[in-house]
Amino acid sequence: MTARDANANSTADSFDFTQNPLPPDILSQRVCPFISPNFSMGRQLVGVAGPATPVTLVNQSSKTLTISSIVTTGDFSQTNNCSASLGAGKKCSISVTLTPAMAGARAGTLVVTDSDSSSPQITNLTGTGTFVSLTTPGNFGTVVYGAKTTQGVTLANTGSSPLTISSISIKGPFTQSNSCGSMLAANSNCKITVNFVPASSGLLAGALIVNASDPASPLAVYLRGTGQAIRLAPTKLTFASQAIGTTSIPQTVQLSNPSASSDLLLGPITAAGDFAANSNCPHTLAPGASCTVSVTFTPSQTGTRTGAVSVVSSDFRSPQTIGLKGSGT
């Protein structure tokens, strides 16, 4: 700021209108990268090719891109569906595979040489080689409070040295027990038993975590299941043959609240098809309480008849259904 500017009394007086104009600032055009600059391949067993992971090459320019080579370095390999020419705005896929030569951090590059001025396009590739694997359990399914379902997980040491296990822990509504001890011999495995024991309704998740002396530690697998706040027993009813227009002897289903602390709210309980339902269930079923749903069958025609009882409740997956089947004669 000049002395003239400092002593200005107005905005107009703060400018020297006789000075030569300054040249405008020219902003350089921003160019989006053709390929991701960094890509992590995660954890992979030493000497075993991992799954092929796609990396997308996009021609961000306004001209056709001529591709002369696509190569990888380090413990990485690639296959691709890229042709020698890639039109403006077009893309192709490069599938990258990690096959670690040893345990620990692995690094390499994916290099695309082409006709663009920014060539070569380089992606820094990283991953971790490991001698330890954990099998991944499937979905534990739907389990009511107070019950459990179990799956097994195998912890394997494929290395030539013993594996020191410092801890095996679990998160979420799951428990675990194992036969692994504190040391897993070379080229051996042990079993971890995982139980899903929901205490709430809805989609639930957790994790099994193993801390060990392997460079890829900690190892984790994610766990998932669905908690159910209502129990129906049985969940299906089959009626004997019944004359058309006559009503069967009632069959019953016990509806219970398996929670030890939360009320179960109940809505309408209705039957569809040639079936009728009534119950002695209250609107609010206390923790640990149960009630009875009574179902009858009145066939309207001959042959197999099917239907269902629908139970509306405060459970996450409401309404629950009771499958019904009978035969009219």
Q: Any idea what the CATH superfamily of the largest domain is called?
A: Immunoglobulins
- Share of residues in strands: over 45%
- CATH-defined architecture of the largest domain: Sandwich
Count of discrete domains: 3
Radius of gyration from the alpha-carbon trace, in angstroms: 34 Å
Tell me about this structure:
With 329 residues, this protein is mainly β. The chain folds into three domains: 38-130, Immunoglobulins (Immunoglobulin-like, Sandwich); 132-228, Sandwich (Immunoglobulin-like), CATH 2.60.40.10; 231-328, Immunoglobulin-like (Sandwich), CATH 2.60.40.10. Helices cover 1% and strands 53% of the residues. It has one helix and 26 strands. The strands form six sheets. The protein has a five-stranded mixed β-sheet, with no helix packed on it. A five-stranded mixed β-sheet has the order 10-17-16-12-14, with no helix packed on it. Strands 19-26-25-21-23 form a five-stranded mixed β-sheet, with no helix packed on it. Strand 16 and strand 17 form a beta hairpin. It is elongated and about 95 Å long. The model has no long low-confidence stretch (mean pLDDT 90).
